[in-house]
Amino acid sequence: MTQPFAGRGAIDLSALKRPAPQPAPTAAGGGTAPGMSAYALDVNEENFQGVLQASTTAPVVLVFHSPSQAPESTQMADDVADLVGQYDGRFLAGIVDVDAQAQIAQVIAQASQLQQLPVPLLMVFLDGRPAIQPIPGMVTREELSTLFNQLGQQLTAQGITGRHQPLATVPTEGEEEVGPDPRYAAAQDALAAGDMDAAVAEYQKLADANPADAEAAAGLAMAKILQRTQGVDLNAARAAAAAAPDDVDAQIMVADLDLLGGHVEDAFARLVELVRRTSDKERDRARDHLVSLFAAVGNEDPRVLKGRQALASALF
Questions:
Q1: Are residues 40 and 107 in the same domain?
Q2: Where is this region: Disordered (predicted)?
Q3: More exposed terminus of the chain, fewer Cβ within 10 Å: N or C?
């Protein structure tokens, strides 16, 4: 359903009647709806510019819904608003009610060369531009979770480690405002700088300090993949794997490259088949590496659940 991030045309905002460009959105000024996470807000003409500007920090997910035209689309918008809160600032969700914000819908339709904006519609922006092809139609909560997991993998693979600040909210009594977790800053800075050795070392420290830290484990697994694949030629790696189908090192390398390219299921299938064909130490290596790829993707991802089932079948 998703594609690698790729720059596309910027959105022309000149049709909007709005004040001067706004700063990055805040919940207090952006009309955050009750029940939304700290990384979701309602979009209107006043804050639309600021929402798109926020995509220079990290991706912005826009969801267009219509309570009158497609009541079910509002549930999808609510799911997006809720799910982005699980990624600690990796995404900011902008919820656009096209019934109330017809001018924004018209601008997006014109930019997308559409006569009318389909509802629902999901778009992902990075650096002010659409980062993937727009996704029209209903998307289930499970599919949305898979989408965000895959986009997160692609962000990490491309060294895009920025995070949105949580939108300003008023804490309830006895509660303190919580900012971004600083524990991951050193590892993310190393990824952004292209220093994979340092990134692995920083994530290893976090994983050693707290083995139950799922984000640290996933970050460590992905950093190791990036470390192994630095400077590797994809075509040469595929040719080597094709020439030696039972060479564990060759198959692992292509699986790593496939995962980084977003071909997660292909990576899993390659190693599952390798487990079927090999034995003893080679089989153990293939299995252990596949398990590390599961960690990189995230144990809650539906593709990981299917991959674990396939691995169990191959082993037993």
A1: yes
A2: 12-32
A3: C
